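Deliverable D5.2: sample structural annotation.
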Amino acid sequence: MDVKITAANSVRKGNTILVDNVPCRVVDVNVSKPGKHGAAKVRITAVGLFDDKKREIVLPAHDKVEIPIIEKRQAQVLAVNGDYANVMDTETYETFDIKIPEDLKDKVEIDKTIVYWTVMGNKVVREVLGE
């Protein structure tokens, strides 16, 4: 599993973290001030990259959170079969099938170039180039 470790108080809006072993995009971060004998708390609200499910965690500010390593690559579309596209990576020439997101179905066509992310072994299409 490709992850980095960082302190919870250094997480910012727009970062990607793991919440319950699911990669999520941070949409809100609130830091509470420490009390007389307590430590500062961080409330992180995040949305899943794959399932768009909202998740919220509360941690002490000094706790560690995991940040997944996101590999951004390009591929050429070889064929489109329903919800899946057969694509070839432009660097490694590896061919594989990848699920097409609902909002990009009308844009993915043969010979177009797509940008896909590899996160924790999962591949997801993020955009179509050359529109």
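Annotation notes: The radius of gyration is 18 Å. The chain has a mean pLDDT of 90.
The annotation will be released with the project's public dataset once the embargo ends.
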